[in-house]
Each structure stands twice: as structure tokens, then as C-alpha cells.
């Protein structure tokens, strides 16, 4: 039983015995005691005053005295205004410590039998992944992992946007400007090569638009009538008709991109259980639209287009099929949602998509509800904020976005420079050093992005993220390496940690309390779909250990029983840090 529930039960018993009335559960308010006060758990007295008919202070004294006299796990209490602060005994915390230390995977929740699908990444095949994709991928992967630790069966999926005008733009530019370049003969990573031609297309388009404007055409008209854009549109028509030459080029260039994506995903530690392709799913949903027409949920306009009127829900009309019968993104998402819930019997479907799509997912749920699918309530849009840089927002079409591969390389290089400056790796083999730089650079990147509440827009500062002090990935990684160094030295000395029921240092009580919180943080993070909860918990635990390390002797402790008990404590800290950071996809080194 967690300490808050223990105290709530004791308060309930005390009120019944002292005042003759059994309080309802909503009157039993407990919380962790604030650090400036003495105690472990605080019970709030104000809701109980109608029963006690006494002052908050006297009520606290009555209940505190009863609890101390009736429970040997309560060491002491004090009352501050209407707050009863209760200090639990060393015996209680030692028993708690034994429970924690005996658990193989402390924090892992029991299986729930629920199936949850998490869709994330969803890149376009006309350009490489960038910093925005990094946040999406890291958030999606860590949310999936967090839900697994919460006992759910999780399916990670990716919907690749592999068709449309944007793909044809890259293809047309490649035909016009090269027709020969490949990743093999240029040495350029496949997704970068295709992205290069997407930027080149926009350069051609801008040049043509400027020329038409100079010749007297209105800019809006020029943007619609530029020859290169019309060619791209014609190419899209040919693709949809299945013209062999266009389809073969599309397959070839998309293949280059997939190969590039796979390399980036592997380096980030991201993987999927299933990948969907828009070229296979964009027609899904048409049957559902026809079904909606039959039910009177949707309506047809004079031009033949199909819509849904959402004005009664405070929204506008939503297009579902164009006048020419072609589908839109919403039609596709209706179809894929139906397909996935039918195929997997999902209890929840989480879409990890930026907050600019809030309206889209609000409409998606409404449309599915109108079609009679009760599981529409189980769709959750994990709406996250954009990533900005100290220099400002990224620009997309001019080729000025922060490339994911370049950013990872820069993070690893910065980790290398920072580590070598500290001069602690002189005796480490070169190969081990390079692996360390890789996990430090990626750890810094992942932690800095994931520690921010997903809903917030975030400012990513590479220099700040790599700091070995403060709330950063490298700080936690270094803390873990320090603990493992102590454990190795203890092993070399033939010391085997064990709990000896020795008295606890105040700092040890704080650490045990923090370790005891880990399962609750796992549940909290899962409920909120926020791995930031776990990230910041890991920082608090690492920070608490470092204060403990500087104030308390471990290997130099003269009392052998205390020394052995402390070895168990720090070993458990390292295990919890590994599990917490593992949820974030961050590797912790054994030495630094």
C-alpha cells in the first residue's frame, strides 16, 4: 500500500473512533509533505471540520495523536494550520525498500489485455526527415513504450505519404535536371537526393512565376499557370492512370527515400510493427461515404461533391469527395480508422500529429460518430507543439529546415568535443569512445525533446541539451555511470550488497520515497500520454542521488552493514534510471 493510501485509511479510522462518524472518501485528502515541513505525508483537515466541529489545528492534534498511538509505522506528527504532517518510521521505509529491491522490474504494471495503436512519423517521400519529424518520432516511440510498461499491448504504425503532387514535383525536377543521379553514383543518401530535387523544383517554379509576373500576369494567376507546375499535375494524372514509365520512376525514387528513412530510424532507435502507404489507402473510405449518404448523414451538392454539415456542432461543412469523385485526406482517414479497428479490435488509437491538425481530428471523431461507430470515442489525438530554434521557426520549401541526420551528427560531434574537454576518457579504447559519443549525443537530443510536455511548443537549443549538469540527458547518463563505477569497485572488493535493517540516513529516506513513487509516475505518464512525466522523474532521482553521493560515504563507510545496505540502494537507483530512460529510448552507459 502506498503511504498516501495508508494515511488516508488511518485518518478515516481516527475520525470514526474520535468523533463517531465515518467520513466519506472524498473528505480524505492526502499528499506528499512539502519539503519545507517535517513529515512524509500530509492530511488536509479542512474537509473534516464539519464532523469534528473544532478548529483545524485542534482537529489535526486529535487525529494525529490517535494515529500515532494506534500505528507503529507512524513515528511522529506535527500540525501546521489545517495540515497534519505525518512522519513514518524507518521500519516502514525499510519494509518499503525491501519491496522495491526485490522487484525485478520495479514500475512495470500488470498486463491489462488492452490493445492500443500508436501512429507516428507519417513522413512525405519528397524530402528527408527534419527536426519536426524528430520530435514526432521520439514522442511517438516513447509514448508507445510507456503504454507497454503500463501493461497494454501496443502496435506501432507509420502511414507514409507516398503519393500526390509533392512527390511528382521531385520526380519531374529529377527528370529535367539530371535523369541520371542515384544514391549510388552520387554518394548522397536517398532521401537527401530526392529532397534536393524537391527544392530544385520550387526554385524552377519561383523563376517561372517571377517571369510571368514580369510579363504582366497577376501573381496568383502566375502561380497557377507556371508550365512546370502544370507538368507536375499532368504527371500526377499519369500516375493515377497507372502509366508504366511514371509508376516505375515513382517506385524507384520512393525506394531511395525508404532506404534513407530506414537508416535514420535505425539511428534514432525507432521501429514500427506495421507501415501503411497512402498509395494503398487513399481510396479507403469511399464506401463509408456512400454509406453516410444512404443514412442521410452526408449530402451531395449540385456539382456532385459530397459534404457533411457540422454546423450543429459549431463547425462548418466538411468536404469528403470532390466533384470529380476523388477522395480527400479525411476520406482516407475514415477508411484507415475503420480498417484498423476492424483488424486489431483496438481499445484506443493514438495519432501523434502536430497541433496544426487539431481541427482535422476533431472532425474525424465527429464523422465516425455520425456513421455509428462507437469506437470513435477511443480515438485520441496526441496534439504536440512545434519545435523552434534559437534562430526562429524553420522554413520548409527553401531547403532551410534542420535536417535530422545533420542534427544527429552535430549532437554526436558536440558530445565528442565536450567529453574530450573533460579529459576522463584517456584510457578508453577508441571504438568504445565512439559508441559513447553516439549514445551521449542521441541521449541529449532525445531527453531535451521528450522532457517538455508534448502539448507545448518547445525551443530546442543543441548547446544547452548537451550540458553535463542540470536537467539534461548527459547529466542522467553520467549519474548512472558514476553508480556503476561504485558497484564495480565494490565487486572488486568482494562486497555483495544486502539490506541489513540498518538505520536510515535522512537522504536515504528521501531516495526510498522517490523510488516508491516510480510506479505512480509510470501510471500518471501513461494516463496523460506524456513521457515528459517519466523524463523529469528520472532527473529528480539522478539529482537526489548526486546530493546523497556528496553528503554520504558509501564505500568508505566504516559500518559494514550500512555500507552493504547502501550498495543495494544505489544499485536500485541505477536500475530505475535504466528503466525510466529506456522508456525514452535512451541508453545509459556503464562508464564515462
Average predicted local confidence, pLDDT: 94
Percent helix: 55-70%
What is the helix tally? 22
| Beta strand % | 5-15%
Radius of gyration: 30 Å
CATH topology of the largest domain: Rossmann fold
Main beta sheet: 5 strands, parallel
Provide an overview of this structure.
A five-stranded parallel beta sheet has the order 7-6-5-11-12, with helices on both faces. It has a four-stranded antiparallel beta sheet with strand order 1-2-4-3. The chain folds into three domains: 3-88, Arginyl tRNA synthetase N-terminal domain (Gyrase A, domain 2), CATH 3.30.1360; 120-388, Rossmann fold (3-Layer(aba) Sandwich), CATH 3.40.50.620; 404-583, Isoleucyl-tRNA Synthetase, Domain 1. With 592 residues, the protein is an alpha/beta fold. The protein is globular and about 90 Å long. Helix 16 crosses helix 17, helix 19 (473-492) packs antiparallel against helix 22 (560-583) and helix 20 packs antiparallel against helix 21. The chain is 56% helix and 11% strand. Residues 394-399 have low confidence and may be disordered. The protein contains 22 helices and 14 strands.
Amino acid at each position: 500500500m502506498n503511504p498516501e493510501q495508508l494515511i488516508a485509511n488511518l485518518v478515516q479510522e481516527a475520525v470514526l473512533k474520535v468523533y463517531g462518524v465515518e467520513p466519506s472518501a472524498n473528505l480524505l485528502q492526502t499528499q506528499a509533505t512539502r519539503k519545507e515541513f517535517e513529515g512524509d505525508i500530509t492530511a488536509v483537515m479542512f474537509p473534516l471540520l464539519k464532523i469534528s466541529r473544532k478548529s483545524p489545528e485542534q482537529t489535526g492534534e486529535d487525529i494525529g495523536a490517535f494515529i500515532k498511538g494506534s500505528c507503529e509505522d507512524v513515528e511522529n506528527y506535527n500540525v501546521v494550520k489545517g495540515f497534519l504532517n505525518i512522519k513514518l518510521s524507518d521500519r516502514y521505509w525499510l519494509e518499503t525498500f525491501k519491496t522495491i529491491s526485490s522487484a525485478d522490474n520495479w514500475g512495470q504494471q500488470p498486463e491489462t489485455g488492452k490493445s492500443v495503436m500508436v501512429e507516428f512519423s507519417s513522413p512525405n517521400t519528397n524530402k528527408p526527415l527534419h527536426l519536426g519529424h524528430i520530435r514526432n518520432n521520439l514522442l511517438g516511440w516513447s509514448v508507445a513504450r510507456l503504454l507497454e510498461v503500463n501493461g497494454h499491448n501496443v502496435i506501432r504504425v507509420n502511414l507514409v505519404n507516398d503519393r500526390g503532387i509533392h512527390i511528382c514535383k521531385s520526380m519531374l525536377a529529377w527528370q529535367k535536371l539530371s535523369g541520371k543521379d542515384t544514391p549510388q553514383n552520387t554518394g548522397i543518401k536517398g532521401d537527401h537526393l530526392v529532397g534536393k530535387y524537391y527544392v530544385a523544383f520550387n526554385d524552377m517554379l519561383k523563376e517561372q512565376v517571377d517571369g510571368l509576373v514580369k510579363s504582366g500576369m497577376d501573381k496568383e494567376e502566375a502561380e497557377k499557370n507556371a508550365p512546370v507546375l502544370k507538368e507536375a499535375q499532368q504527371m500526377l494524372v499519369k500516375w493515377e492512370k497507372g502509366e508504366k514509365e511514371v509508376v516505375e520512376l515513382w517506385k524507384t525514387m520512393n525506394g531511395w527515400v525508404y532506404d534513407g528513412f530506414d537508416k535514420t530510424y535505425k539511428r534514432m532507435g525507432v521501429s514500427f510493427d506495421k507501415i501503411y502507404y497512402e498509395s494503398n489507402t487513399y481510396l479507403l473510405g469511399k464506401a463509408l461515404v456512400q454509406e453516410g449518404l444512404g443514412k442521410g448523414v452526408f449530402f451531395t451538392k449540385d456539382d456532385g461533391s459530397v459534404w457533411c454539415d457540422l454546423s450543429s456542432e459549431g463547425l462548418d461543412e466538411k468536404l469528403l469527395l470532390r466533384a470529380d469523385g476523388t477522395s480527400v485526406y479525411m476520406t482516407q482517414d475514415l477508411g484507415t480508422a475503420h480498417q484498423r479497428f476492424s483488424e486489431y479490435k483496438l481499445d484506443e488509437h493514438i495519432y501523434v500529429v502536430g497541433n496544426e491538425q487539431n481541427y482535422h481530428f476533431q472532425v474525424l471523431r465527429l464523422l465516425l460518430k455520425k456513421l455509428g461507430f462507437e469506437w470513435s470515442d477511443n480515438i485520441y489525438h496526441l496534439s504536440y507543439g512545434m519545435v523552434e530554434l534559437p534562430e526562429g521557426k524553420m522554413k520548409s520549401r527553401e531547403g532551410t529546415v534542420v535536417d535530422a541526420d545533420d542534427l544527429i551528427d552535430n549532437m554526436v560531434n558536440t558530445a565528442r568535443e565536450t567529453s574530450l574537454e573533460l579529459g576522463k576518457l584517456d584510457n578508453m579504447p577508441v571504438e568504445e569512445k565512439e559508441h559513447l559519443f553516439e549514445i551521449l549525443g542521441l541521449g541529449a537530443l532525445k531527453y531535451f525533446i521528450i522532457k517538455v510536455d508534448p502539448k507545448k511548443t518547445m525551443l530546442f537549443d543543441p548547446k544547452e541539451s548537451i550540458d553535463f549538469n542540470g536537467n539534461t540527458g548527459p547529466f542522467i547518463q553520467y549519474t548512472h555511470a558514476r553508480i556503476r563505477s561504485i558497484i564495480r569497485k565494490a565487486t572488486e572488493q568482494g562486497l555483495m550488497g544486502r539490506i541489513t535493517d540498518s538505520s536510515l540516513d535522512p537522504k536515504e529516506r528521501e531516495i526510498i520515497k522517490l523510488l516508491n513513487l516510480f510506479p505512480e509516475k509510470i501510471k500518471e505518464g501513461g494516463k496523460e500520454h506524456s513521457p515528459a512525466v517519466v523524463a523529469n522523474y528520472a532527473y529528480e532521482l539522478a539529482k537526489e542521488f548526486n546530493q546523497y553521493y556528496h553528503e554520504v560515504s558509501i564505500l568508505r563507510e566504516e559500518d559494514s552493514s550500512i555500507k552493504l545496505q547502501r550498495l543495494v540502494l544505489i544499485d536500485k537507483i541505477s536500475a530505475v534510471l535504466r528503466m525510466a530512460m529506456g522508456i525514452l529510448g535512451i541508453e545509459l552507459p556503464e562508464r564515462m
